[in-house]
Amino acid sequence: HTVTWPLPQDPNLAVDESEGELALKYVGTAGVTSGLSGGYLSGHYTGSINPALNPSYRQWSGNYVANYMGGRSTLTSAVGYTRRTSPGTSSLLNSISAVTGNVNYSNQLTGKTSIGVILARVINTYITNSGSEIDNSATLTANWQTTYKTGVAVSYIWDYAQLPGQGNHPFGGDRLDHIQTASATVNYDAVRWLAIK
Description:
By secondary structure, the protein is mainly beta. The protein has one helix spanning 91-94; strands spanning 2-4, 14-27, 32-46, 56-70, 73-85, 96-108, 113-126, 131-144, 150-163, 175-191, 194-196.
């Protein structure tokens, strides 16, 4: 995929990424599936006026995965290790490694109400700095389908982002971002061709 990210000082800034994943899973008993997965990603920035801010990078990851589906609840999980490397002067911003993974749990409490919890630790691309980050996040969701036409959804997201080498005080130090987002949405399907949100 390609993401364009124009900035006042870099109106043509963009990042191109290609990735693939291979998994070997065993479908066990009682709704349990488990196995191993491996992934590879390559990417590069383009369009920055400063050539040093057009780095390339490669990423490898390996995970143990386990999924469960039974009754009203589902659970998907993965834990493993991810390593991203970048050559040259950009290695400080894009050479990063960490234990990564995710847990995604959902439960259909009643016919109209469901809840979900997602915990994740992943390496992401931070386009503004032509760099990389480790995102540690927790997401809580609740959905209530009040009628067959009307639904209410609320969510809360907490994100602790680590951006190595991208701090301003001192310049080049590590940066930490704390992000919280709360939202509420009401969906109304008036007719088949009209939905109001």
